[in-house]
Here is the input.
Amino acid sequence: MITVTDIAKETALRMMSEEKNDGHFIRVGVEGGGCSGLMYQLEFDNSINEDDKEFEDNGIKVVMNKKSVLYLAGTTLDYSGGLNGKGFVFTNPNASRTCGCGESFSL
Here is the structure.
C-alpha cells in the first residue's frame, strides 16, 4: 500500500516517543481541499475505525480509511528536513498534478 522510508520511520518513532504516543500508529488519508483539489492528512492515532485498512511497512503500522486507499495506493511516505521545508512528504504515483508546496494533488 504505502512505502515508509527509513528517515520517515525514524522521525515518526521519535515524534511518537517525544509526544508520549508510544503504541500509536500513523494514520494517513485524503480529504477535499488545497490548491489542487485533494489534501494529504497525517496524524498519530491509536484507534481503529470499522472502515479502516491496516498494513505495515518498514516496521511501521499505517492505517487509512478504505476511500483513501484508492488515492494513496503505491505512495511513498518520506521525511524532508531540508531548506525547502521540514515535514513528512508524500510521493504519490497516482497524482497527475501537485501544488507547489506538495500538500495537495489531483488525479
Q: What stands out?
A: The chain has one domain: 2-106.
